């Protein structure tokens, strides 16, 4: 058994001030530090810039001995080591750019017990000699930065991260903190499974950025919609995201034609041109970058006042990252995301046609559904967004749906029909099968399960299949039904859903997204 001497949080607070020079913890930090000092393993999910590093640096000092930090980014390791040394903390990094002499010095320092923090790349840590070094040196804490890299479902999978679970076991199940700014549920579950034998304490820091105004709208005439949006932000810096390189060129030209200082940015441009655009954007006011998603990584411009998606973003996660580049200074910033129905259909086709595993497809489908549910959200958009990250919240008052309202109708009976289809089939099926039951389509699967005999069979024949799909997405966005991610994306009914099912509560649904094309251009209220 692990022997832990409880360390008062006072010791940590004193070091926070005396070593780092900070007056107080940032939200979330103290609880994490306390959990680690109390002997627990931790998974910390916190947005970029919220102060994740301190969550292991401070415990490293309080606990003494050696803390090993795994990070995939050499530049980031160097930065942190430099900073820690400036604070007077013995830190070093082992990575592919070290020479033999440097490595020897680090080895000696390790064996002498002189190092407090050692930064290591994941491939280096996975090597047998490294594990042996660390066993000899005695590691007290393992910190795994960018922990989402362990997940094959993430956007940044790194095979080297797969070895970390084994290394951790070889180090005697050393106390561990995994950190990431990526929060979606499949990734989170994957991190826990791959890195920890016993589930850790999970901390999720708020992802809310209240100064960002959120809005989404179906595409009607995209260039005009983009122009109208940009026009309300005269003289301000902003980013317009497009899906293709060609479109960034076209939109930049359009904005220039309308008198704006707009520059295209995509991976197809020569490096000098790209860098020049980026520098202009960073250094001057009132420049608009028209970019593919290649733009923005590591860009830290505090006064970006607007972000416009001229095309549907990749998923909810990237939507959040991309709008998050606005308003870093905490002042009001505006966002608009345009989506097209044909785009949604195309994305669905790409997923079905991709040559990847069934499991991968299932997760991609769920991610797309979550994105569409956000586009078609029947209530506060921020509430829907934060709920996706597992964060409950109240209506925000700063999104298009809170401000303008939507054309809605009493969808209680429709929701009840959809949910009774879920319940009557034992909460074991996904949207397509349930829609077939509702519209009374006796498909092979329906017959095989004898679902044509259910009282629910055909009760929704007054609506088209597309309308029912939208109803499923809407009641999902409203929290009435939940997706079971582990078991084939089947729907289950939540407590809130049961209240509607029993007739204790009503639910409003959006008409405009149910029957796209009908009255969409009308003023919504
Ligand atoms: P993340 O890894 O979450 O993106 P960092 O660990 O790089 O964030 O921290 C972001 C910035 O916040 C750093 O400049 C760091 O020095 C600062 N910071 C961290 N914790 C505190 C604190 N308690 N008080 C003041 N500044 C802090
Ligand atoms: Zn809102």
From TrEMBL:
<dbReference type="GO" id="GO:0006260">
    <property type="term" value="P:DNA replication"/>
</dbReference>
<keyword id="KW-0547">Nucleotide-binding</keyword>
<keyword id="KW-0862">Zinc</keyword>
<keyword id="KW-0227">DNA damage</keyword>
<keyword id="KW-0067">ATP-binding</keyword>
<protein>
    <recommendedName>
        <fullName>DNA helicase RecQ</fullName>
        <ecNumber>5.6.2.4</ecNumber>
    </recommendedName>
</protein>
<dbReference type="GO" id="GO:0003677">
    <property type="term" value="F:DNA binding"/>
</dbReference>
<keyword id="KW-0238">DNA-binding</keyword>
<dbReference type="GO" id="GO:0046872">
    <property type="term" value="F:metal ion binding"/>
</dbReference>
<dbReference type="GO" id="GO:0043590">
    <property type="term" value="C:bacterial nucleoid"/>
</dbReference>
<dbReference type="GO" id="GO:0016787">
    <property type="term" value="F:hydrolase activity"/>
</dbReference>
<dbReference type="GO" id="GO:0005524">
    <property type="term" value="F:ATP binding"/>
</dbReference>
<keyword id="KW-0233">DNA recombination</keyword>
<dbReference type="GO" id="GO:0005737">
    <property type="term" value="C:cytoplasm"/>
</dbReference>
<keyword id="KW-0413">Isomerase</keyword>
<comment type="similarity">
    <text>Belongs to the helicase family. RecQ subfamily.</text>
</comment>
<keyword id="KW-0472">Membrane</keyword>
<dbReference type="GO" id="GO:0006310">
    <property type="term" value="P:DNA recombination"/>
</dbReference>
<dbReference type="GO" id="GO:0009378">
    <property type="term" value="F:four-way junction helicase activity"/>
</dbReference>
<keyword id="KW-0812">Transmembrane</keyword>
<feature type="domain" description="Helicase ATP-binding">
    <location>
        <begin position="33"/>
        <end position="201"/>
    </location>
</feature>
<keyword id="KW-1133">Transmembrane helix</keyword>
<feature type="domain" description="Helicase C-terminal">
    <location>
        <begin position="222"/>
        <end position="369"/>
    </location>
</feature>
<feature type="transmembrane region" description="Helical">
    <location>
        <begin position="56"/>
        <end position="76"/>
    </location>
</feature>
<keyword id="KW-0479">Metal-binding</keyword>
<dbReference type="GO" id="GO:0006281">
    <property type="term" value="P:DNA repair"/>
</dbReference>
<dbReference type="GO" id="GO:0009432">
    <property type="term" value="P:SOS response"/>
</dbReference>
<dbReference type="GO" id="GO:0030894">
    <property type="term" value="C:replisome"/>
</dbReference>
<dbReference type="GO" id="GO:0043138">
    <property type="term" value="F:3'-5' DNA helicase activity"/>
</dbReference>
<keyword id="KW-0347">Helicase</keyword>
<keyword id="KW-0378">Hydrolase</keyword>
<keyword id="KW-0234">DNA repair</keyword>
């Amino acid at each position: 058994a692990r022997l832990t001497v409880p360390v008062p949080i006072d010791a940590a607070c004193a070091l926070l001030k005396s070593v780092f020079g900070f007056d107080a913890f940032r939200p979330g930090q103290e609880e994490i530090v306390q959990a680690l000092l109390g002997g627990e393993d931790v998974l910390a999910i916190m947005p970029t810039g919220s102060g994740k590093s301190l969550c292991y640096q401070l415990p490293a000092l309080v606990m003494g001995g050696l803390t090993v930090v795994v990070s995939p980014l050499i530049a980031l390791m160097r930065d942190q080591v430099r900073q820690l040394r400036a604070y007077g903390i013995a830190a070093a990094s082992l990575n592919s750019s070290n020479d033999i002499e440097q490595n020897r010095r680090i080895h000696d320092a390790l064996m002498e017990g002189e190092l407090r923090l050692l930064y290591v790349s994941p491939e280096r840590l996975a090597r047998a000699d490294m594990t042996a070094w660390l066993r000899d040196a005695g590691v007290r804490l393992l910190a795994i930065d960018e922990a989402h890299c362990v997940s094959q479902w993430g956007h940044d999978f790194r095979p080297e991260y797969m070895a970390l679970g084994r290394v951790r076991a070889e180090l005697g199940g050393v106390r561990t903190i995994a950190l990431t700014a990526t929060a979606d549920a499949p990734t989170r579950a994957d991190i826990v499974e791959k890195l920890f034998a016993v589930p850790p304490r999970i901390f999720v820091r708020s992802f809310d950025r209240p100064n960002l105004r959120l809005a989404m709208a179906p595409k009607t005439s995209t260039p005009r919609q983009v122009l109208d949006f940009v026009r309300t932000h005269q003289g301000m810096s902003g980013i317009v995201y497009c899906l293709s390189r060609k479109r960034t060129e076209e939109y930049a030209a359009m904005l220039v034609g309308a008198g704006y200082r707009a520059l295209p940015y995509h991976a197809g441009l020569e490096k000098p041109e790209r860098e020049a655009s980026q520098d202009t954007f960073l250094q001057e006011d009132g420049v608009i970058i028209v970019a593919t998603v290649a733009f923005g990584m590591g860009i830290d411009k505090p006064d970006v006042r607007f972000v416009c998606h001229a095309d549907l973003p990749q998923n909810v996660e990237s939507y959040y990252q991309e709008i998050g580049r606005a308003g870093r200074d905490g002042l009001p910033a505006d966002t608009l995301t345009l989506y097209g129905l044909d785009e949604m259909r195309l994305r669905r086709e790409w997923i079905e046609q991709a040559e990847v595993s069934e499991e991968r497809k299932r997760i991609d489908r769920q991610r797309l559904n979550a994105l569409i549910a956000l586009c078609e959200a029947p209530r506060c958009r921020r509430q829907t967004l934060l709920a996706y990250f597992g964060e409950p919240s109240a209506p925000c008052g700063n999104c298009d749906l809170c401000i303008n309202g939507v054309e809605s109708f009493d969808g209680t009976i429709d929701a009840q029909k959809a949910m009774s289809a879920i319940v009557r089939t034992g909460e074991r099926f996904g949207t397509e099968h349930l829609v077939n039951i509702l519209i009374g389509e006796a498909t092979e699967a329906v017959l095989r399960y004898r679902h044509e005999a259910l009282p629910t069979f055909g009760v929704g024949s007054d609506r088209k299949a597309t309308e029912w799909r939208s109803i499923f997405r809407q009641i999902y966005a409203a929290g009435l039904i939940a997706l079971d991610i582990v078991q084939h994306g089947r729907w289950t009914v939540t407590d809130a859903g049961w209240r509607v099912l029993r007739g204790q509560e009503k639910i409003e649904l959006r008409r405009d997204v149910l029957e796209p094309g009908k009255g969409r251009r009308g003023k919504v209220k």
